[in-house]
Fold:
Amino acid sequence: MEFLQTIKEFFTQGGPFMYLILLIGVFALLVTFERIWTLSRANVNSNHFMARIQSFLITNNTEEAIKFCNSASDKPLARIIKNGLIRANKGEMEVVHALEVTSLEEIPSIQRRSG
Structure:
């Protein structure tokens, strides 16, 4: 209870600027939680994800790999890999180009919410 009394005294002594500081602090806390929530939604267990993709490709089952990517379509890694898989039968350069282009599209959306 003494702690709350001390905070009340700080507010009384600080005047109206204390409310501005409190408002800025609450805003900063909300932004921090929003960034953590956004980044956690974009996160995927990449080791598990890539192992599953690899198992589909070893059995030459590209369609199942694409379906697996569709099941995680809200994840940037899944969208990148999916665009490479779609072009798997068009040659290595086409696949690499698709991966690069999709990466360049996905990275700014991740950075915008984390920087």
User: Anything to note?
Assistant: The longest helix spans residues 16-42. The helical segments are 2-14, 16-42, 46-58, 62-71, 76-86, 92-112.
